[in-house]
Amino acid sequence: MKKLISLCLLSALLSLVVSCRNGAPKAQGAATPSAGVKAGLVTPQYAEGFRVSYTDAGCLVDIQDPLREASESFHYLLVPRGESPTGVPAGYSVLEVPVERVVCMTSLQLSNFICLDELDRVAGITSTRHLFNPEMKQRLADGRTQKIGIEGNFDNEVILALDPDVILISPFKRGGYEALRGVDIPLIPHLGYQEQTPLGQAEWIKFIGLLTGQEEKANRTFAEIEARYNTLKSLAANVKERPVVLSGELHGGNWYVGGGRSFLAQIFRDAGGEYFLPEDTNAGGLNLDFETVYSQTAGAKYWRIVNSYNGTFSYDALKAEDARYADLNAFKGKGVIYCNMREKPFYENMPVQPDVVLSDLIYIFHPDLMPEDYQPVYYELLK
Questions:
Q1: How far is residue 76 CA from its own chain's centroid?
Q2: Residues 110-113: contacts with CB within 8 Å, 24+ apart?
Q3: Reported pTM
Q4: Distance of CA 340 to CAs 294, 316, 334, 343, 379, Å?
Q5: Per-residue pLDDT tens for 329-375?
Q6: What are the residues whose beta carbons fall under 8 Å from the beta carbon of 219, sequence distance 6 or more?
Q7: Which of 197, 193, 277 has its CA nearest to residue 230?
Q8: Long-range CB contact pairs, 53-56, < 8 A, 24+
Q9: Cβ-contact 285, 251 below 8 angstroms
Q10: How far apart are CA 111 and CA 204, in angstroms?
Q11: Facing residues of 73 across strands?
């Protein structure tokens, strides 16, 4: 059985480790992408944060909080660059596309430009702390892209000198964006970080496709991501044992975790696991104390940690952070799933590689479902 599955998925799994910008081929035997999507038309299937419609006036884009926690919404009429729009609907701001110069505020936003091979349009970015992409590093080195400061402390003079067409923001985060409203540059929300599903987050590549004039490429790229993801998801759909998974660490006395209906909880379920808060109905984050986490994790086999550690992370290093960690079942059973952001481009690539993340998790939860020679890309069991 294991050998049969491995042979059927070998070509698909090999494509998972290929960079998105290198044009990874569609997986053989993959699930059929969403039907009814024409090559040049954008129709979100999973993303809850943006909607697209086409009228005689042009392309209408409506953006709202996917979690419905914020009532504010944003509305744009996209028109070809240089054309004068007519019949602009009330409440819509006109935006000429393709945009030529963009400022990205997050790694998630940048991941879309990397995947579409559109880094020439990125004029400015914020933090480079976990930047791995060699092309973007070169652009920063030779001045084609500039650093604009960090969230809450942006350099408005640098931003004005860049003369960007748009600034992509995360409006429902505390990022100091109010200070940017005076620079008279369109602030366009990118709400992929609010999506509750991995494919919903990945589908924001179509939104960037709209802004860059790469709708067809964005549709094709997402269809390949979707097909690979759903093929892998189907592998773990009927597993008999679903291990319970904990996530996060203590910071300042609080344990920040995603809710039971969060993006993270969903990818654990799709990988044949179960989140440690199965009854929780929150889609956003929660702050819990250690005692609450401990009481909920008696049966947790695995514990997922993503951090930035200078050196070799280990169980001893984890215990040194807080001795109580050693009391957790996942610690005792050596079930810590780990990714070091200093070594792997997790947040830079993960938003457009949910299929790769899913394959890593399936390999950990249910290794019999994966080829014996599978090499994890982001997540590995801590040694």
A1: 23
A2: 110/136, 110/348, 111/347, 111/348, 111/349, 111/350, 111/351, 111/352, 112/192, 112/204, 112/205, 112/207, 112/208, 112/351, 112/352, 113/208, 113/212
A3: 0.89
A4: 24, 16, 17, 6, 9
A5: 999 999 999 999 999 999 999 999 999 999 999 999 999 999 999 99
A6: 37, 39, 40, 41, 42, 206, 209
A7: 197
A8: 55/87, 55/89, 56/87
A9: no
A10: 10
A11: 64
Confidence of residue 99 (pLDDT cuts 50, 70, 90): very high
Contact 228, 27 (CB under 8 A): yes
Summarised one tens digit per residue, pLDDT across range 42-67 is: 999 999 999 999 999 999 999 999 98
Question: 60-66, long-range: CB within 8 Å, 24+ apart, which pairs?
Answer: 60/89, 60/92, 61/207, 61/210, 63/189, 63/191, 64/191, 65/172, 65/191, 65/194, 66/191, 66/194, 66/195, 66/196, 66/200
- Position 39 scores a pLDDT of 54
Give the C-alpha separation, 169 to 173, whole Å: 9
pLDDT for position 170: 85
C-alpha 180/C-alpha 203 separation (Å) is 27
The Cβ-side half-sphere exposure at 127, using a 13 Å CA radius, reads: 12
